[in-house]
Amino acid sequence: MSLDYRPEYDDIEEAKSPNTSVAAVAVKNADASVYKIIHGYLKQKNNSIIKVAANVARKAASNKLSRKTSDVFDSLIQKQQSKWGNNTGPLLSGISYCIASCSMILLNKVVLSSYNFNAGISLMLYQNLIGVIILMVLELFGVISTEKLTWKLIKVWIPVNLIFVGMLVTGMYSLKYINVAMVTILKNMTNILTAVGEIYIFRKGQNKKVWAALCLMVISAVCGGITDLSFHPVGYMWQLFNCFLTAGYSLTLRRVMDIAKQLTKSGSLNEVSMVLLNNALSIPFALILIVIFNEWQYAYEVEVIRDPMFWVFATASGLLGLAISFSSVWFLHRTGPTTYSLVGSLNKIPISVAGILLFNVPVSVENLFSIIFGLFAGIFFAKAKMS
């Protein structure tokens, strides 16, 4: 069929129109059945079959239709595949973040409480050192690639790293004194701080349902503290600091990521480079803190470091630390600070249950009710954010 044939040219223009479906145009042509197949699979979101059908469509288009029509189908298919990638990205990154976060909290609780290890900064140093070594080995074998660490990039990233170090240290010390279930409920306070931070930094307002959910979280945290049978004021103080630093980390990281990209040669900064920056820059700060708090002497003399199982748990927590660094940066990149915070609220349910069962935490009926109330407040918060 000639390209000068007017009816066909009209079909091409009609196919390019955003108000016209592919199937409606294809019915007018001899290849209607092929395009109906593509349209059907697009509805079913079957990615692999679409590729096969697309190849068939291209061959048919080269014989029956003009190249412009084929390009229209290519554009539509690429747009649909990109849309699926954008939809599954936040889901996969969120699931990865939840699994890593849950496992990390439980393992840190084992190392700090079950083994009575009182050097949280030293543990953080060991975990981040493991992360740096693994990343360097992977880069050496060409598995991953990272941006070159320039002084300009480091200067921009130092504020994020300082907050990152503070977040890890305060989180470890709070776990030392507070049971896992109460830590997860008190972490709900981070949502309030993050929501307020988004208003002032990103000019992003919240609806009434979100604020109602945040109020419920405050009530559950206060009730949980009052009814906590293992209440420890030092632990609660560390957890309060941790909430401020966690909110500050998510807000600052989101802001600095865009600035840092402009300071790289490639004009981008992948997740691997961000994780390496965080872990590598935290080592000198951790060493300074270890000297200031005289942890090096305690870590050298404490008997528990001679227990092989202690090192198994400590190393496993280091590997999970690397996993949570990847997943948190990936998740923040795909969503935003408040979504990052609210998903952290939802994963408190399995953490709380596991913490109570694994560590034989004494709980009263009132305290258990406060924990359940706080968990449901987190779910309500998630629904409010999605409405």
Automatic annotation (TrEMBL):
Topological type in the membrane: Multi-pass membrane protein
GO CC terms, sorted: membrane
Keywords: Membrane, Transmembrane, Transmembrane helix
Coiled coil: none
Protein's cellular compartments: Membrane
Entry's transmembrane regions: 91-112, 124-144, 156-175, 181-203, 210-230, 236-253, 274-293, 309-332, 339-361, 367-384
Residues annotated as domain Sugar phosphate transporter: 100-375
Keyword Membrane (UniProt): yes
Pfam families per the UniProt record, alphabetical: TPT
Protein name: Sugar phosphate transporter domain-containing protein
Organism: Oryza meyeriana var. granulata
